[in-house]
Design brief:
Blueprint (H helix, E strand, L loop, with lengths): L3 E7 L3 E8 L5 E8 L5 H20 L6 E8 L3 E2 L4 E2 L13 H9 L3 E5 H12 L8 E6 L3 E7 L2 E2 L32 H5 L1 H14 L7 H4 L9 H9 L3 H25 L3 E5 L7 H10 L14 E3 L6 H8 L4 H14 L1
Parallel strand pairs: 1-4, 4-7, 8-11, 11-12
Antiparallel strand pairs: 1-2, 2-3, 5-6, 8-9, 9-10
Helix pairs in contact: 3-10, 7-8, 8-9
Length: about 350
């Protein structure tokens, strides 16, 4: 009987791998290694292999008890064919048949999924979207990613590349809104963490007399401004910090109003580091959505913070191996625990 699944979360800086019990959804063992992305494809792939080997060794679990290996990685990728195309933060990963390579290495069934899609499914199974079938999951951090979940399943589209909601344009003539994807005015180029800080830095450079503690917090070095510094200043009641977070919330709310027009989800779950900004951000998002949506129920759509902050990538990657019956069993188990 297969008792466990392995989840592998590949990012630009780290590879996090864990083994999860199918019966109760608990993380048994975890390994985190640096990705070594600067070493190119071969160096970082070796880190993936090493992390899987280590978690198997540490857990003492034989391959005969493993249902499979789920892998999540940044897109663009094709989850059906198991191919990673050309993610910007993984140099040299061009048309890599990742699922096939891992399958051959360990002789264990392997599936690949986009990292945002995987995190979204993890929230459906274990997190804030449990009990919902039609879900929009959003991650806001260094970029903005989305997962579209319909009837409890990720919607992949024709080529497996659906759900790139972070690259929807909301301001096509913003000269400062040049996105890493090459387009102008994507929501990612306007409301992700790095772009929010760039906008704040420009404001401070143009208006050196603004009353704010932010400048003192970085000893006058504006290049040292980060979302963490911004959050700390907001916690202290700094007016400019609060205004900056509220502005980000308005941008996200404008975008989500359009997403509701298209998808009419039961719930929107927001994760990623920026989601930790808290009430100021979420209040502005919820206030803005109805003013930019034709959906008469837009103001009734719950917009909530993701519940799985730690290890969401591992759980998300593992989720692609779970059968519907296993997901249902986990949900029943959670209800019994309540």
């Amino acid at each position: 009987m297969k008792k466990y699944v392995i989840g592998v979360d590949i990012g630009g800086t780290k590879v996090a791998t864990g083994i999860i019990s199918i019966r109760d959804g608990k993380l048994k063992k975890k390994v985190v290694l640096p990705t070594h992305a600067k070493d190119g494809f071969e160096g970082s792939l070796e880190q993936v292999y090493e992390s899987i080997g280590k978690v198997l060794q540490m857990s003492g679990t034989g391959k005969e008890h493993i249902e499979g290996i789920g892998v999540c990685a940044p897109g663009p990728l094709n989850p059906v064919k198991g191919i990673v195309h050309n993610p910007p933060n993984l140099p040299g990963w061009n048309e890599v048949p990742l699922a096939s390579l891992i399958r051959k290495k360990f002789r264990i069934k392997t599936r690949l999924e986009n990292d945002a899609n995987a995190a979204g499914m993890a929230e459906v199974i274990w997190g804030a979207a449990r009990g919902y079938k039609h879900v929009l999951y959003v991650t806001v951090s260094t970029g903005i990613g989305t997962a579209i979940i319909i009837n409890g399943k990720v919607f992949h589209g024709k080529n497996g590349m659906a759900g790139e909601g972070g690259h929807m344009t909301i301001n096509y003539d913003d000269k400062y809104g040049k996105c890493n994807c090459g387009n102008i005015g994507c929501i990612e180029a306007l409301a992700s963490g790095p772009y929010t800080i760039k906008r704040l830095r420009r404001k401070l450079e143009k208006n050196p007399g603004l009353k704010t503690n932010l400048i003192d917090m970085v000893d006058g070095r504006l290049n040292d401004l980060t979302m963490i510094v911004l959050s700390d200043a907001a916690d202290e009641g700094d007016r400019l910090a609060l205004e900056t977070i509220a502005e980000e919330g308005r941008l996200i709310g404008i975008w989500l109003g359009s997403m509701i027009n298209v998808l009419d989800p039961e719930i929107i779950v927001i994760g990623g580091g920026v989601s930790l900004m808290g009430d100021v951000l979420f209040k502005e998002i919820r206030k803005t959505i109805p003013t930019h949506s034709i959906n008469i129920f837009a103001d009734k759509t719950p917009v909530v913070q993701a519940r799985l902050k730690r290890d969401v990538g591992i759980f998300g990657a593992a989720s692609v191996l779970l059968k519907p019956s296993e997901i249902a069993a986990l949900e029943k188990g959670k209800k019994r625990q309540k």
